[in-house]
Amino acid sequence: MSRRLQILALVFLLALALLTAIYFGVHKPGERVSLSPSSYSPAPHGTKAFFLTLERLGYKPRRWRFEWSRLRAEKGVLLHAPADPITAGGRYKPVAMSEARETARWIERGNTLLYFLNPAERQASRNVLLAQLGIELFSEELPADFERTQTLRQFLPQRLERDFDYVLPVPWAGGVRRLTADAVPSFAMSQGQPVVLTDRRGFGHVHVLPYGQGRIYVFSSSGFIDNHFVARSDNLTLLLNILDRERTDDEGFWFDEYHHGYSAEFGAASFTQLPVVRFAALQAGVLALLYIVTSWRRFGKPIPLVRDARRSIREYTQSLGNLYFCARAHREALEFLFQELRRNLCSRYNLPDTTPHAVIEDKLRVQRGAAEAWREVAGDCERLLGARRIANADLLAAARRMEEFRKLIA
Fold it and tell me: Which residues is 114 bridged to in the sheet?
């Protein structure tokens, strides 16, 4: 294989690797826009505005990207707004039974859960976590036309909204006169107390349920906290009142992102799907191919068995140092090294070469320990240059000290 063909083959392999990496890194399968109420989403159905508002107010919210079984070591408030499986874009993860059992124990120990029902849970009147707690969920029965509208609600060009004015006068609902959210049917639970009421007795849009030493707040939809409604009416006031009631300064507040598909759990299957991992595997394949190609014939000329004698930079430096020692030019060598160091410092701080040591020392105070090190180096060099004779050990010590000072300010 000629050298020209080798270069062409190398360029072809690099271009192939680049195009394949672009394909894996940029190409994504076509899917519908996700309507998940995730704190990463700035879309109208997302909850990023509420998350950033809490950060600005000093609540220090965090995102939970693990299974709920890991909550056993934490204490605080968990906000869970499950997405609609139909419009979640393939990232929806349902709550498993094992997670529901662990979460029930976690709430029982004195923690709090804010749960926002999704459309599927409202229509089926079933919730895995509430079923684990032994609580039945009853959804409001609607006329046929209203039921059809609720079925197609997420596909309408505009969101259907509703104001809720019947708020139970509890202490943690102080200052809340009206709430605004999606126009969804109300619900009732076999246990708990409705706080945002409707015309039907026992039905509401916000329920509070004591469980063990903790509490569960169940909302009829995630519209109370999403980007479209969180700043409407008194939605934010109600949510902040709940947080102030349930959370202390040393407890955490988490937005559940694990069930929106943002997992920090390690999995071999998902790990191999990462574009970075695929690109690394591609690079390894290219290197293996290059090794096979280059093993057929070497690049460049073969190395001769007998090489010509040559001198390295280290050997040249040692030889020059020996010449200085043999010539007894200790003073000239030290003066050259010290003046070269001063010129570098003056050039670094835009100072003239005749600048006194004290001025250079003031400039070096911006770096920790540099001013004291310069004072010692300058003092030792001035002392040795003023002596009648410079010993070999003193010259070596001064040179090492200047080298250490160069590394300090590098």
Answer: 79, 217
